[in-house]
Design goal:
18% strand, five-stranded mixed beta sheet, single chain, 311 residues, alpha/beta
Length: 311
Amino acid sequence: GLLASTVAPAHASTWPDKILRMVVAFPAGGPTDTAARLIAQKLSERLGQQVIVDNKPGASGSIGTAAFIKAPADGYTLSMFGMPALIAPIIYRNKLYDVRKDFTCVSTVYDLPYVIVVNPKVLPGVNTLPQLIAAAKAQPLNYASPGTGSIGHLSMEQLKDLGGFPMEHIAYKGSAPAITDLLGGQIAVMYADLIAAMPHIQAGKLQAVALGAPTAKALLPQVKAISEQGFPGFESSSWSGIIVPNGTPTAVVARLDQELQAILAEPDTRQRMEKIGALAVYQPPETMKKRLAAEYARWNQVATEKNISAQ
């Protein structure tokens, strides 16, 4: 015991003295991967050691996350954790981990705003959420999501209950095919992330009806949030943060937290995040942990009440 107590601080004082690995449980090119590569570059510069990104996609992030939590807790493995990996244990029968206790939070990194969009050719004159709800009550409408149990799916189901309006869910395998059918008029509505929707909103091909959170006004200032259109307190967006395996030295967690706070305050980081449709957001370990637990409880309740599950 005495030996262990003297070794751990010594390790922390020399950290980092080799390459670090950042696990991304999603494919290359998506928002989580893009943000991870930006943060990895910034961390490499500040730590004086290379931080490499290791993509391990599959099953909405659950495969990579399940492998990550088994990594050595030596401070050399971290992960960019995304919302799909939080929801996966809720909707998949094979629960590979518990997001409330199986890893240690370091800090949040970004919020990925969501927006309700409509095809203006299918729903002409629908520019606000009350107008959309009125249209849904007057005629059968369907909405697209990137998949069963996605933020877009769960958020719309919760909103339907709160607003008392019907709308049929059509699940796709990813945002790209859903957006394609929305643009083609096969689908009327989508609760989409801004990365997928923004180019089409700017081109006038999609009409933004409501933002998932007021903070997203930094990217679409002319659009009101859901909470401002009859649903006070309603917020729904995706977000991501850095995690490490349980048992990682506290001094290492504190150093990573400190560096991430500085990185996310840099104007260059904030500008580059906004270019991909995200907002740089720093929250310390305890705040991130509480946010994660609250998100899990919220979406678990929605999925249970709606009997939403995936194979």
